[in-house]
């Protein structure tokens, strides 16, 4: 059975702990800010939180400059692209 070196295990744990700490710092948007889609203003989150598609209710929380979603909802839907690694032997064939 293969075991990871102790240093690698510690690194993985510290990354997980850091990630958890960062997520716990960010708070879910206040539900009192929710706004009907047709009444949403500038710099308000447009993430639809209602279950009924005929009654589109948006989050309404403040958004950063140039974004349609607040930080909370952006984190839920946006997954950063992973770098592509190309094997050298694949390039020669």
Walkthrough of the structure:
- With 93 residues, the protein is mainly alpha-helical.
- The protein has a domain at 27-79.
- It has three helices and two strands.
- Strands 1-2 form a two-stranded antiparallel ribbon.
- It is elongated and about 55 Å long.
- The two termini are 35 Å apart.
- Mean pLDDT is 76; it is low at 1-15.
Which keywords apply here?
single chain, 93 residues, mainly alpha, two-stranded antiparallel sheet, 2 strands, GcrA family cell cycle regulator, GcrA
Oligomeric state of the chains?
A: single chain
Large-scale geometry: elongated
The assigned structural class equals: mainly alpha
- Mean pLDDT figure: 76
Q: In which range does the helix fraction lie? A: 25-40%
Count helical runs: 3
Q: Describe the biggest sheet?
A: 2 strands, antiparallel
As residue ranges, the low-confidence spans are: 1-15
Spatial sequence of strands, sheet with the most strands: 1-2
First-to-last CA distance: 35 Å
What gyration radius follows from the Cα positions, in whole Å? 20 Å
Number of strands: 2
Strand residue content: under 5%
> Which sequence of SSEs, written as H and E, runs from N to C?
HEEHH
Protein name: GcrA family cell cycle regulator
InterPro entries: GcrA
Organism: Microvirga arabica
Pfam family, one: GcrA
């Amino acid at each position: 059975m293969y075991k990871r070196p102790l240093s690698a295990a510690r690194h993985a744990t510290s990354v997980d702990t850091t990630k958890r700490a960062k997520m716990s710092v960010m708070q879910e948007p206040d539900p009192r800010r929710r706004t009907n889609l047709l009444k949403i203003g500038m710099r308000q989150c447009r993430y639809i939180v209602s279950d009924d598609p005929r009654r589109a209710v948006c989050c309404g929380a403040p958004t950063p400059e140039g974004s349609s979603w607040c930080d909370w909802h952006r984190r839920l839907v946006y997954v950063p692209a992973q770098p592509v690694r190309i094997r050298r032997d694949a390039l020669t064939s």
